[in-house]
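Collaboration report, partner site 2.

Our partner group contributed sequences for two proteins of shared interest, and the home lab folded both. The records are reproduced in the order in which they were received, starting with the first partner submission.
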Amino acid sequence: MPLIPAGSLQLETERFGPADAPAILLIQGLGTPLTRWPLSLCERLVAEGFQVIRFDNRDIGLSTQLDSLGLPDLMGFFQGRRPPNPLYTLADMAADSIALLDALQIDKAHIVGASMGGMIAQLLAGLYPDRCRSLTSIMSSSGNPMLPPPTPAALQALFAPLPPGKDEASMVADWVRRQQVLMSPAYPTPEAELKAMFMAEYRRSFHPQGVARQLAALLTGGDRRSLLATIQAPTVVLHGEADPLIPVACGQDTAASIAGAELRTISGMGHDFPTALMPEFAAAILAAARRAA
């Protein structure tokens, strides 16, 4: 599909399945394009009678880049001087999803988010309850400040500086190293597949300034537990028991904060989208959707 006007932005969007079928909206995480939602997952959901929508968030992929906003002071945050100055918020990104649904003339959708996308999905379900049929929060967190942090290796994978040259070969090799820290130990993705994925992502769009702005929004997202307590949509929380970036306790806390939420954890799953686990991802999304039905 072409870029979809969504409020003041244009969001690169792909839509699968019949337009009159119940909609599932997939929201990706920090610096992650729509293509990271595997086609096999989209096809499974379409086969179950749904239409599936995946899109690039603002500032990533082929959607609107907000360079006119400048850059947040992440260095001050890393040096412990001050929190970063967010140039927009996760709530703004949730509003983007609502604007996209409006543009597609979809009144209500099953909302699915992964990692930072899970945080955005939680905000959508809490702030716009009339637009959310069900919620599936995947490898995400409630924002509770008392939850355990990432492992040191995962923190390094997230925050380490980019290679100086930022050329394709250097960036792909760097992304592969980072992803190998985060990926599922029981379901490892072969290095050749990682290289091919990151090469395609680099060639599609490489814009680290947008990732910096998204990161500032994530780091200042705050504690969502009081909002989660208001969510009435059927909810499934899916989390990997071996997640080094957002530990499984974060998923447990998310589920505990939403009345009636179902928690599903997967042994040996880290912070990624292993092909072998797409049936489990689909099952979690469908469980929430069927409860709504």
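Second partner submission, folded after the first:
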Amino acid sequence: MGHHINNGAAMNVMLTELLHFMSRPNIAVDLGTANTRIYSSLNGETTDNPSSINLVVRKTTPVSNEYFQYINNKISTKPLRRGVIVDLKNATILLKKLVNKNRKSLLSPMALATAPIGTTEKERDLLRKALMNAGTSHVAIIPESRAAAIGAGLDLALPQAQMLLDIGDGVTEMAVFRGGRILYHATVHLACSDLHRSVRSTILARHRVQLENASIEKLTHVISSMQNEQESNVGIFDVSGIDAVQGKRVHCCLNRKDVINALEPVLMKITVIIVNFLKKLPDKIYSEILESGITLTGGGACIAGMDSLIARRTNIKVRVALDPLHAVINGARLSLNYWIGKEDGWENFTWPKLTAFR
């Protein structure tokens, strides 16, 4: 009797695995300038990978000069710039690897991807082509800011205007939602990578030291001290990097004020753009946002002090999303799960007609 039960259980397991293998997978894709995140409906997991491909194969013989070793490790290509594909071939290579990693089925996956709201039809076609070349059977694309808003927990159906501010690696996006629609939007090519670049070039020019990304990201958190004039003028950071002349790892002391001076021009440009966007809104919409506040997502939301800086310069309360880094992929995941089984949703989705502010 027990033997028959075991056989039946084994048969059920085999049948389940076979159905799993035969079922069509669905994936959500957030192809970002810095990172690519993919959610698979088959295992319910999200993978996070850099949006870059290494061009240098490491040799067995170590490079003696630390600077050249550092540069060697950095030689890579990024198929995306400012949120859009600029290198279709390498974007396909990048995505193919990730799609195959998430493909545990006989059938090709259907993909729901996101793109910056300000992209052109041609730019979205490149994303669609890269995903199709990477092995997907169908691609639908939704605005990144809509996905970020859903992932941040905003109820887009509310009749009151709500604003989302997404500061990514290469792009900053602003969108106003009301009654389920995006009423106004702006896409700006100024974001976290510009803050990092400014710090990197300032330190290199002043100290001849090339800092690693982790150190630069850590330094951007001095934004939190910018509200306190006394605190922003004092403080020393001890960081390590590669001396660009000697080619050796060195320690150097950085003044907090120098780092703030490197960040301030970029921050000023970003906040002025946000303020100007708000000024162009109709009075009624602006009043509603004044009441509902601004929701902040993206890598910029993870920088300590960014929310309070924007709040101070706009005079509007700013709320950081619960998981700002994954707001886009979480929103895409929720949208994907809603669409599963609704075939007409995939076919009928068209990019919304939007009112853009330049």
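Feedback sent to the partner group on the second submission included the following. Confidence is low (pLDDT under 50) at residues 13-22. The longest strand covers residues 181-188.
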